[in-house]
């Protein structure tokens, strides 16, 4: 073979290798893009599930708080109290569905906090209803206020865990080995200059 043919063959071979490299790179980028899209979709679903549960918890908490505001007055409007009572009880079904979705979506710590918050809110609602049916005895009020504090604490804990799960703290990593070496050499030079 003469040198011109050899150069032509090397050029064609180089073009073929470059084309294969381009195809492989394109497939690799598409795969990374697909994985990123899947992760983004999972995060979007998790946000919507957590948001729905947080909304249901806060709606129920606010409904019971409004009921307590009505019942704390010296003269209770029975019709308004029953209306608020029904509203507080109606939020239970929506809350149960939202907590179930969080339990399925996970992680376990967030799901446990959601269940605990729903249980505490349920206990608080049941206690308020029982207190209202007894005629609002003053000696029972302290227990209701304690349940209110525990329920609000659990709701706040759930919200904190949601934020932690959705926005995790970035992990600290050692710098790249070359940067670390430069840093250590810089420390040595500084120590020499200062006489340590």
The poorly predicted ranges are none
Order of helices and strands, N to C?
HHHHH
Total strand count, please? 0
Question: How would you sum up the major sheet?
Answer: none
Alpha plus pi helix count: 5
Strand content: under 5%
How would the global form be characterised?
A: elongated
Rg, Å, rounded: 32 Å
Distance between the termini: 69 Å
What does the average pLDDT come to? 78
Could you walk me through the main structural features you see in this protein, from its secondary elements to its overall organization?
- The protein is mainly alpha-helical.
- 86% of the residues lie in helices and 0% in strands.
- The protein is built from five helices and no strands.
- The chain has helices spanning 3-71, 78-105, 108-134, 141-166, 177-194.
- α1 (3-71) packs parallel to α3 (108-134).
- The longest helix has 69 residues, at 3-71.
- It is elongated, with a radius of gyration of 32 Å.
- The relative contact order is 0.09.
- The mean pLDDT is 78.
């Amino acid at each position: 073979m003469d040198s011109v043919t050899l150069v032509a063959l090397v050029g064609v071979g180089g073009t073929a290798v470059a084309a294969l490299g381009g195809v492989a790179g394109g497939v690799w980028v598409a795969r990374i893009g697909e994985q990123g899209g899947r992760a983004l979709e999972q995060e979007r679903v998790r946000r919507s599930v957590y948001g729905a549960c947080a909304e249901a918890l806060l709606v129920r908490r606010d409904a019971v708080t409004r009921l307590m505001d009505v019942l704390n007055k010296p003269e209770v409007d029975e019709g308004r109290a029953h209306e608020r009572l029904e509203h507080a009880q109606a939020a239970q079904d929506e809350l149960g569905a939202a907590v179930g979705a969080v339990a399925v979506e996970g992680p376990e710590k967030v799901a446990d906090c959601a269940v605990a918050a729903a249980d505490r809110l349920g206990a608080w609602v049941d206690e308020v209803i029982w207190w209202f049916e007894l005629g609002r005895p003053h000696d029972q009020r302290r227990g209701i206020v304690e349940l209110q504090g525990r329920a609000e604490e659990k709701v706040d804990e759930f919200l904190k865990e949601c934020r932690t799960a959705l926005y995790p703290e970035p992990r600290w990593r050692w710098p790249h080995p070359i940067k670390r070496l430069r840093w250590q050499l810089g420390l040595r030079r500084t120590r020499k200059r200062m006489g340590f």
